[in-house]
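> call design_seq(struct)
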């Protein structure tokens, strides 16, 4: 029995020595000291021993077991230390490595252009106003002197929500809200989204941005309009550019005009950029129609004013020489990161 135990001990110690993982070590423990383990198996033969032999063998068994336990726990500590060292080696941080670059966002060309327009008009004493994108027909059309049968009210151009409510097709609706407020004089710009039932192409989108402008005071004349918008154009596109006002028609202004700026690419000689014209159309404008004043409760005999509407995308495309409006909406980082 002693010899068998001795043999088991030698074999087990070797196995423990050679074990590499905690699992392997545990298997050894179970196979030797477990309920069906080899030492336990040997112990079962104790009952056949004489009463003198039994305590001696018992002592030897205990010693053997203690030895094995000690070897097992020693090896366990070694394996665990090994594992920890490996893990720590893996977790080492090389503080000299270059950091990962954080990709910062870029302002959108629309935002840059809007900031610039706002800066210019705030500098001239204007306030920035806002109005709702979901609007009553009254504010978008009727109060702007656009009658019920006007082609602009056609469902092909306007997104209607119901008979009275629609998505505004122009920021001119904000003029009415501001004038209804009754605080004259007024000097405001109102940037915002507008919606039209247009197909997407290089120059159209069902959703785009306008900046409305409105000035109301006693004694405002067409020359105030021309002076203000020319000052704006020079600040926006360069001191050397010239402006030209062409007669036009808008229902809410009388007289009405469109303003062109001399091409800031060719200086007015005519190039690809201005399509050979030498001039580029920038905005619509005019003197506030007396009827619009009346509907807003302002006396047209006492007050006059001018208004204008600029397409923000148009300004951004021109200023940054972008030839397709769709680029402004696709949010391609390769495009945006150029600004
Ligand atoms: N609302 C016009 C449009 O959408 C632009 C416009 C023209 C606005 C003349 C004005 C203006 O305030 O006076 O085309």
């Amino acid at each position: 029995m002693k010899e068998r135990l001795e043999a088991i001990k030698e074999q087990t110690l070797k196995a423990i020595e050679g074990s590499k993982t905690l699992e392997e070590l545990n298997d050894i423990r179970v196979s030797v000291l477990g309920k069906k383990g080899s030492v336990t198996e040997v112990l079962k033969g104790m009952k056949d021993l004489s009463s003198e032999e039994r305590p001696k063998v018992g002592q030897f068994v205990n010693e053997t077991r203690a030895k094995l336990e000690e070897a097992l726990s020693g090896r366990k500590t070694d394996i665990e230390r090994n594992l920890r060292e490996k893990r720590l080696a893996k977790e080492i941080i090389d503080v000299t490595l270059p950091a990962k670059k954080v990709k910062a966002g870029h302002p959108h060309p629309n935002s840059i252009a809007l900031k610039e327009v706002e800066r210019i008009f705030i500098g001239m004493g204007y306030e920035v106003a806002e109005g709702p994108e979901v609007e009553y027909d009254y504010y978008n059309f009727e109060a702007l002197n656009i009658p019920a049968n006007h082609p602009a009210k056609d469902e092909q151009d306007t997104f209607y929500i119901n008979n009275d409510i629609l998505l505004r097709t122009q920021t001119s609706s904000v003029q009415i809200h501001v004038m209804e407020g009754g605080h004259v004089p007024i000097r405001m710009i109102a940037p915002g989204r507008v919606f039209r039932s247009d197909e997407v192409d290089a120059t159209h989108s069902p959703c785009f941005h306008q900046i409305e402008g409105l000035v109301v005071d006693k004694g405002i004349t067409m020359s105030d309009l021309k002076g203000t918008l020319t000052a704006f154009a020079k600040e926006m596109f360069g001191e050397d550019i010239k402006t030209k006002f062409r007669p036009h028609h808008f229902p809410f202004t009388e007289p009405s005009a469109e303003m062109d700026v001399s091409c800031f690419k060719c200086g007015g000689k005519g190039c690809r950029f201005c399509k050979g014209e030498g001039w580029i159309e920038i905005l619509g404008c005019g003197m506030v129609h007396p009827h619009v004043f009346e509907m807003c409760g302002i006396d047209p005999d006492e007050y006059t004013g001018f208004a204008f509407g600029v397409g923000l995308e148009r300004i951004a495309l021109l200023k940054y020489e972008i030839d397709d409006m769709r680029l402004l909406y696709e949010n391609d980082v390769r495009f945006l990161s150029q600004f």
